């Protein structure tokens, strides 16, 4: 990012250790810069899902840098994830034609359940694969695989953790960090969000704000995808030797297996 230093910008890395994102300041102006962001960012900006895209430039190294308005704000807390605003923004994302069209133009194909299951099975270490709770979950996934028509797949975020929801000082709500975006069954987002943040007795109310009834089919699909994501997180934490977090996810996985046992 030497190009921007030479132009008089002050750059501070943000967003972890990847070195891809920066807070840039010059003469009181603040921007969020990112290297090699997906062209999908423009569509997200146009829909108001992320802070507004200001410009896109190719710099001397050949890398593409995007600039967005810098938004002072905070991540949502766990209670706020139950709100109607979160449900409404989730619905907007899942029903957006322009977002779906852009991902298709970028060559993305639907991530159907059989592909997800094959992906996690091929990625598991012997230790994780042998754990009795993971084995029980895999058996459930094999026996209860949803049958999804591709035409019902939508744009999904894939990581709706509260850390990725930004509430600006101007009371604007954004969902950021779209590196894992996919075309898939929207239940992949709904399941993790509801199982993680919303009390089960409020699921019907939350889904009414989202615009869907809570029926047996949706319950089964949400459970299936949440098991997939939990196993993925268990493997990720084992890979990074964060064993306490890995064990927390194993506990979560066991809870999901035993929740709604007869669906």
Automatic annotation (TrEMBL):
One of its GO terms (molecular function) is transferase activity. Keywords: Transferase. Residues 15-214 form the Aminoglycoside phosphotransferase domain. It comes from the Bacteria. The keyword Transferase applies. It holds the Pfam family APH. PANTHER family: CELL CYCLE REGULATOR CCRZ, PHOSPHOTRANSFERASE YTMP-RELATED. This is Phosphotransferase. It comes from Salinicoccus sediminis. The lineage of its organism: Bacteria, Bacillati, Bacillota, Bacilli, Bacillales.
């Amino acid at each position: 990012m030497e190009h921007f230093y030479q132009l008089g910008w002050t750059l501070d890395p943000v967003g972890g250790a990847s070195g891809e994102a920066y807070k840039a300041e010059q003469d009181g102006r603040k921007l969020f810069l990112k290297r090699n962001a997906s062209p999908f960012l423009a569509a997200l900006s146009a829909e108001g899902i992320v802070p507004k895209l200001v410009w896109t430039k190719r710099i001397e190294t050949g890398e593409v840098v995007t600039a967005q308005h810098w938004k002072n704000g905070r991540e949502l807390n766990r209670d706020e994830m139950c709100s109607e605003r979160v449900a409404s923004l989730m619905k907007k994302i899942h029903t957006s034609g322009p977002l779906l069209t852009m991902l298709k133009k970028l060559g993305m194909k639907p991530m159907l359940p059989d592909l997800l299951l094959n992906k996690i099975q091929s990625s598991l270490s012997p230790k994780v694969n042998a754990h009795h709770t993971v084995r029980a979950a895999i058996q459930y996934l094999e026996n209860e695989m949803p049958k999804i028509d591709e035409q019902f797949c939508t744009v999904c975020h894939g990581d709706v953790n509260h850390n990725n929801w930004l509430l600006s000082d101007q009371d604007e709500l954004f969902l950021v960090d779209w590196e894992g975006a996919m075309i898939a069954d929207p239940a992949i987002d709904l399941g993790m969000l509801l199982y993680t943040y919303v009390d089960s007795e409020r699921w019907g109310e939350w889904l009414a704000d989202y615009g869907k009834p809570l029926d047996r089919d949706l319950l089964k699909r949400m459970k299936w995808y949440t098991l997939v994501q939990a196993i993925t997180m268990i493997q990720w934490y084992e890979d990074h030797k964060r064993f306490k977090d890995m064990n927390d996810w194993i506990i979560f996985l066991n809870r999901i297996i035993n929740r709604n046992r007869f669906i």
